[in-house]
Specification:
Length: about 160
């Protein structure tokens, strides 16, 4: 699968949004791959993991988040399911599941289940598109998740024990 071709299809113009998407996705992919290199006992498909990480935010352009150059009409919270729909339409159902299950530590009904879904979701939490040059610590990330409920924090911290 050529993930770059999919990015090019939905983000054909070299602009701030495309550059931000690629930078953030590369950060997430690199962290996810580093986790799996460190934990060789994790039975993951490394090629799929990289592709899915590079495409996890493919749906952001349809969302209304001007601070990160998104000028669509949908609420930002929907970018995962939107990306899932786009990737499913492209014929990539496994990649679609990663996209739709990476928001927070998983939205109700869309919790990360497979190891690859969990690793991408976990890696994504360390990078914010609104502050792309900052890498959050585990503590900062846990604190940022607290506003969504303590269950998500507990899930994130369990992943931290497993993946760090």
């Amino acid at each position: 699968m050529d993930y770059q071709a999919i990015i090019d299809k939905y983000y054909p113009t070299d602009n701030e949004l495309r550059r931000l998407l690629i930078k953030h996705s590369r950060q997430v992919a690199d962290r996810a791959l580093a986790i799996c290199r460190k934990h060789r006992e994790l039975p993951v498909d490394m090629q799929f993991l990289e592709e899915a990480a590079m495409l996890h935010d493919i749906g952001i352009y349809q969302c209304d988040a001007p601070s990160i150059h998104c000028h669509g009409t949908e609420p930002y919270i929907k970018h995962g399911p939107i990306g899932g729909d786009l990737l499913r339409a492209e014929g990539f159902p496994r990649h679609a599941r990663v996209a739709e299950r990476h928001t927070g530590t998983g939205l109700p009904g869309f919790e990360p289940e497979t190891l690859e879904e969990q690793v991408v979701c976990y890696a994504d939490k360390f990078y914010s598109k609104s502050n792309p040059d900052h890498v959050r610590s585990v503590l900062e990330t846990a604190q940022s998740l607290e506003k969504f409920g303590h269950a998500g924090v507990e899930k994130f911290l369990a992943w931290a024990k497993k993946f760090e």
